[in-house]
Amino acid sequence: MTTAAVRKRGRGGGGAARRAERTTINIESAKFIERNIPNFDILNDEALEIIECNAETVLEEIGVNFVSNPSSLKRWKEAGADVEGERVRLPRGLARELIKTAPSTYVQHARNPKRNVEIGGKNLVLAPVYGPPFVSDLDGGRRYAMLHDFEQLVKLGYMSKWLHHSGGTVCEPTDVPVNKRHLDMLKAHMTLSDKPFMGSVTDPGRAQDSVDMCSILFGENFVQNNTVMTSLININSPLTFDDVMMGSMEIYARNNQACIVSPFIVGGAMAPVSVAGTLTQVLAEVLAGIAYNQLCRPGAPVIMGAFVTSIDMNSGAPTFGTPEAANITFGAGQLARRLGLPYRSAGGFSGSKLPDAQAAYESAYSLNSGLLSGVNFMLHSCGWLEGGLVSSYEKFVMDGDQLGILHHLSMGVSVDENNQAMDAIREVGPEGHYLGCAHTQANFKSAFWRSGILDYKPYETWLEEGGRDTVSQANLRMKEMLANYQQPAMDPGISEGIDEFVEEKKRSMLDAFT
Fold first, then answer.
1. Tally of CB atoms within 10 A around 476
2. What is the spatial distance between Cα 323 and Cα 452, in angstroms, rounded to a whole number?
3. 243-280 burial string, b = 16+ CB within 10 Å, else e?
4. CA dihedral angle for residue 321, residue 322, residue 325, residue 329, rounded to 10 degrees
5. Helices 470-484 and 147-159 sit at what angle, rounded to 10 degrees?
6. Which of 77, 331, 347, 398 has a CA that sits 20 to 30 A from residue 165's CA?
7. Which residues contact 228 (CB under 8 A, 6 or more apart)?
8. Residue 392 in contact with residue 135, Cβ under 8 Å?
9. Residue 242 gets which letter from DSSP?
10. Distant-in-sequence, close-in-space partners of 7: CB < 8 Å, separation ≥ 6
11. φ, ψ of residue 437 in degrees (nearest 5)
12. What end-to-end distance do the CA atoms of the chain give, in Å?
């Protein structure tokens, strides 16, 4: 599609857009988290300085590979790096100097301005699971994901009160050709939800399609002057940057769209077994990746990422919710703050095959580590199962419910006059109770967080109602949410433009399933 066509369709009908906004069904959605609690700093200044020094040594002496991307090697050479074949070695301080242009915070705009999110600072934005080829639920079991599953999960994300972001590849729709499925996924995020979303990174051309579709949704000028996508750029750890991810990042940076530059590390396999060694490699990789992002466009929004798991040395399988992963998450948060960059890490991680006690323990520990480590963008915050191979409908709902705890923990403890509760203590005195006092009556509706999934009823009542476990409760809740889903209104001209773009792009290429 020509730029002129994108620009034409991006203008849409202003009056129709305003009418659509007035008639949109209001779905309750919490604002992104603004922390009122301190971050947990696990490393002292000496330890941080050692890791930072060692990371600079890695970049200077060992270097990083930029594979099959001659333009990146040219950029690095012009910036003062030592380039030998595909190996790039950075003089001390070069990467740090280059990343100074990266913003410490930025706003990602949603098509519904009420859903805009601010990423960085003391904020935490929660996004769902990303990438699994399988889905599971009580009714259909574990199976390959289809486009229908993708659309259902987008709807659940839209209906989830505590999720701020629609995410990206919430599952991989295997019934759609590989070279075309990004179009259907983006269309689903754009039309079935009005929360912010992520673009495609599986090919630079698909990244460009993402930008072009956003130009239809938001208008071309708006896209060039504002951030409307935050997308995931994984580093092939150890110390390797491939042409697909870097090519996609070049497209996004050039168009002022945000990238999460994130190592993908399984400790003991793709990084050292030690916390300090892994943090050294993480820092070296993100310094190189973010510096290259800024070479592409100084000032482009970018997030320092750290996806880290440990490994079971008996089976080789990744493990989650471990103290080592938590320590790396805490330490990487400190390094990100010292660089003045937004930080991505943590999530509702689990290696369990079911949404069971193992999944709950591992996910709860990972989620809380993310909150306390100062994470600003948390991908995989709900729905992740089986080490990221499965998007679970029930776990999506269970995790989404528990994200409310993060919101409440982040508020901290208020000591204003109402929360001091001195009047209540005086009123009740010795040997009384607080159930009927004025303070309780005035505050009981908002005093305590309450789960929408977990069961607090007496045993007899629970048994009479079917004796359902948490997964069964989540299954019922999931079905209720989907039954109550109402698609957010959209300007008809914009909707038509998106449909036409998708159909034209699909007609322009043969199906490819590899």
1. 16
2. 29
3. bbbbbbbbbbbebbbbbbbbbbbbbbebbeeebeebbb
4. 60
5. 90
6. 331
7. 108, 109, 196, 214, 217, 218, 222, 257
8. yes
9. -
10. 215, 220
11. -75, 160
12. 24
The amino acid at 156: L
Q: Can you tell me which residue has the tokens 């259907």?
A: 184
Q: What does DSSP say about strands 64-66 and 87-89: parallel, antiparallel, or unpaired?
A: antiparallel
Tell me, what DSSP letter sits at residue 236?
Answer: B
What is the phi-psi region of residue 442: left when phi exceeds 0, alpha when psi lies from -120 to 50, beta otherwise?
alpha
How are beta strands 302-311 and 343-345 bridged, if at all? Answer: parallel
The secondary structure of 88-141 as a DSSP string is: EE--TTHHHHHGGGS-SEEEEP-SSGGG-EEEETTEEEE------SEEEETTTE
- Tell me which residue has tokens 């069971």: 356
* Helical residues (DSSP H) of 340-456, grouped into ranges: 357-373, 393-409, 417-420, 422-428, 438-447
Rg of the chain taking only CA atoms, in angstroms: 24
The torsion angles phi and psi of 265, rounded to 5 degrees, stand at -120, 130
Mean pLDDT along residues 212-216: 98
Which is more confidently placed, 388 or 514? 388
CA 49 to chain centre: 29
pLDDT digits (tens, 9 = 90+) for 54-92: 999 999 999 999 999 999 999 999 999 999 999 999 999
**Closest by alpha carbon to 122, among 314, 315, 372?**
372
Contact (Cβ atoms closer than 8 angstroms) between residue 503 and residue 213:
no
Of residues 318, 325, 381, the one with CA closest to residue 351: 318
Q: Name the residue among 209, 191, 218 with its Cα closest to residue 252.
A: 209
List 377's β-bridge partners, or say none: 125, 344
Tokens 């591992």 belong to which residue?
Answer: 362
Q: Which two tokens stand for residue 433?
A: 């109770």
Give the span between the Cα atoms of 498 and 191, in whole angstroms. 9
Cβ pair 392, 152 in contact under 8 A: no
Query: Tokens 């979303």 identify what position?
Result: 197
Q: How far is CA 200 from the centre of its chain?
A: 14
- pLDDT tens for 326-354 read 999 999 999 999 999 999 999 999 999 99
- What confidence tens digit (pLDDT) does each residue in 261-305 have? 999 888 889 999 999 999 999 999 999 999 999 999 999 999 999
pLDDT band at 308 (very low <50, low <70, confident <90, very high): confident
Q: Quickly count: other Cβ atoms within 10 Å of residue 11's Cβ.
A: 15
For residues 117 and 124, give the distance between their C-alpha atoms in angstroms, rounded to a whole number: 9
